[in-house]
Amino acid sequence: MSSKPEVPRGFRDFPPEVMELRLKVINTVRNIFEINDFPPMDTPSIEYWETLAGKYGPEAENKLIWRFKDPFSEKEYALRYDLTVPLARYVASHPELQLPFKRHQISYVWRHEEPQRGRYREFLQADIDTVGSKFVESDAEIINTMSLVLEELGLDDFIVKINHRKILYIIFEKRLGSNVTSVLRAIDKLDKIGIDGVILELQKIGLDESSINWIINLISNRDSIDNLENIKKNLVEFDFSLEDPLNELIEFREFLAHRKHIVFDLSLVRGLDYYTGIIFEISLEKGSPGSIAGGGRYDNLIKMFKGSDLPATGGSLGIERIFDVLEERNITSKFKKKNKVFIITLNEDSYKYAWNFSYELRTRGIKTEIDLMRRNVDKQKKKGASENILFHVYIGKKEKEGRYITIVERDTGKRLELPYDKAIDYILIQLKER
Length: 434
What we know:
This protein is α+β, with helices and mostly antiparallel strands and 434 residues long. The chain folds into 2 domains: 16-332, BirA Bifunctional Protein, domain 2; 337-433, Rossmann fold, CATH 3.40.50. It has 17 helices and 16 strands. The strands form 3 sheets. It has an 8-stranded mixed sheet. A 5-stranded mixed sheet has the order 13-12-14-15-16, with helices on both faces. Strands 1-3-2 form a 3-stranded antiparallel sheet. Helix 6 (165-176) crosses helix 7 (180-188) and helix 7 runs antiparallel to helix 8 (190-205). It is elongated, with a radius of gyration of 27 Å. The protein starts with 15 loop residues before the first helix and ends with a helix.
């Protein structure tokens, strides 16, 4: 006997009832993106390995990217690790693009990491990006749009942590001299391994106890974004060259629409090597499995393909983590709108009449199900007990002979007998009002 076929670890099937909900959530996200002037685009699932190499840092490129050699051409390929590097490749190869170039993309990416809660090997990301603008309002627009998405989904307990990549670089270069990149990578693991884990990582780098204590004290700084002026005063005393990135954050703050949700956090690093300026991460106060969104400015990434500077900024929503939270909080129920008609055929002679009526409903845009197994009435009723059924339509001999339709509202039991055409109009009106 053959063994039961299994899905690889970190990958999942999505049956229709789950996929319907996922698409409703995805379409909600997509709608907010488009309202905020981020039109859709897509890129291939597979890139040449040389396209991704050197963009993310050694940990991602040595351990997390799905990489393989084509046995026919001997070329090396990789599954896309994120949606940002493919975007940079696209922009660099299309010099005719009008700037600023904006887009959203909701597509799968792959990570070769150990599956756990909120982390899968194949998962959806929802990205928005603006290429060509060096001004802070483009950074703020990313966060404002992400915030609108979360509010629309009912996740209004979100916290946005912001920082500027240059602040930590400047501070660490002055105090530590070398090892800046290694230190930043250690700090980036804070959410995964905690303070004690970060201390161990810093010890592995070879830092002494005094330097480690100083780093831990520094990254503990977290305050409201409204207190940036005080933060600036304290940090500029350490190094005057910090004034520029701090002034940039202060200007950026004025374009933010959800300031009560936003904090300045010096522990925020964003581990990917391509970040250059303002960075952010979004998490939830109640039961969030880590961050649910993040991003920032990456002004040097496109230059790696194009050879010339082109500023860019963007952000990514983790659809899987968001969907997990929506389910945990039972918010997905608001997407389970009753919008379907189920046709119950009372006898075999009326089946073709019922089939024609189902076709008429579908041509009018009404979601309709009819039994294809020619089951008896009781089994049809049982099949028609789905949560999203609004109306049961009964069609038998008398309905066929009288050219009318019997409609029963599933929740209330309200029963109507209407002529064929008026039955369609009635269902349409009821669906629009709910």
